[in-house]
Specification:
8 strands, alpha/beta, 12 helices, eight-stranded mixed β-sheet, binds guanosine-5'-diphosphate, elongated
Length: about 300
């Protein structure tokens, strides 16, 4: 929790500073409520949550003096209510051998790093993991994944640059079945510049995996970069439609002032948040806890 709090310090300190200057010796009236609502929207929390917070505050304190601490406490409570339903851990069904996790998301949002961190957790728990380099467009992505496989004692399957990603995904799945791997994690390309191509590629991957098991991929995990703010909302919309995202990992929550976006995404999309990324290191992937996150943001 201390690390999360430190990571979200910029988000929370910006908010609490603005809130305390707004509520210096002021009674809670329509103007202050409106200013507070704007401030919360600017902090990326989303209109719905901003209105929840001001609604709850108004119900409790309208016409009376309020302090920054009152606002923080009520805000933390309301944010927690928005986040609690999406704080769901990633569940693996090991009857599928392997459980297939397809990892999607815009390039740079932390797919490869998250796969590495996840592989470390899973192999640390004694599971046999295989990583497949399905981002066949970027040599660096293939290389990085291979390094993560080495670091985490996972099997690795890759192909040449430019090869068909769906072909690679299919081969990886067959190999993982043969080798009796517990979990297969497949990286993908996230070139948003060419949406039609991206869509065709992801659809094809999902289709070929389904030939080996109609339920595969068993999890479609999307990575989101907290520092991109509002943009992340749209990214979920896009990948949800293309790949049937089942849950999210929000990365780079260390040191960003835009951590509030996770609340807006939870309110809008209601997709499970499996983990949060709080650094570049192998251990910097944490389970998502609604209460901790809410109090870390509310300051
Ligand atoms: P990909 O293109 O989606 O595969 O993204 P990468 O995994 O290559 O990550 C892009 C950059 O973000 C790399 O420099 C990572 O080290 C960095 N990164 C990923 N996750 C985190 C995180 O949680 N915190 C920080 N600070 N950096 C991260």
């Amino acid at each position: 929790f201390q690390r999360l709090k430190a990571g979200l310090f910029r988000t929370s300190s910006q908010l609490t500073q603005q809130i305390s200057s707004l509520f210096t010796k002021r009674k809670l009236d329509d103007d202050t409520l409106e200013e507070l609502e704007e401030l919360l929207i600017r902090a990326d929390l989303g209109v719905e949550t901003a209105m929840r917070v001001t609604g709850a505050l108004s119900a409790e304190r309208y016409g009376r003096d309020v302090t920054g601490e009152d606002v923080s406490r009520i805000m933390a409570g309301e944010i927690e209510k928005v986040l609690a339903p999406v704080a769901k851990p990633l569940e693996l069904d090991l009857n599928h051998k392997p459980h297939v996790i397809l990892v999607v998301g815009v390039n740079g949002t932390g797919k490869t790093t998250t796969i590495g961190k996840l592989a470390a957790k899973l192999s640390g728990a004694g599971l046999k993991v295989m990583l497949a380099a399905g981002d066949t467009f970027r040599a660096a992505a293939i290389e990085q994944l291979k390094i993560w496989a080495g670091r985490t004692g996972s099997e690795f399957i890759g192909t040449q640059l430019g090869a068909d990603a769906a072909g690679l995904a299919y081969d990886a799945y067959k190999k993982a079945i043969e080798k009796r791997s517990d979990v297969l994690i497949i990286d993908t390309a996230g070139r948003l510049q060419n949406k039609a191509e991206l869509m065709a590629e992801l659809e094809k991957i999902v289709r070929v995996l389904g030939k080996l098991d109609p339920d595969a991929p068993h999890t479609v995990l999307q990575t989101l970069d907290a520092t991109t703010g509002q943009n992340a909302l749209q990214q979920v919309e896009i990948f949800r439609n293309i790949a049937g995202v089942s849950g999210l990992v929000m990365t780079k929550l260390d040191g960003t002032a835009r951590g509030g976006i996770l609340v807006a995404i939870a309110a809008k999309h209601k997709l499970p948040v499996y983990f949060i990324g709080v650094g570049e290191g192998i251990d910097d992937l944490e389970p998502f806890e609604a209460k901790d996150f809410a109090s870390a943001i509310a300051g």
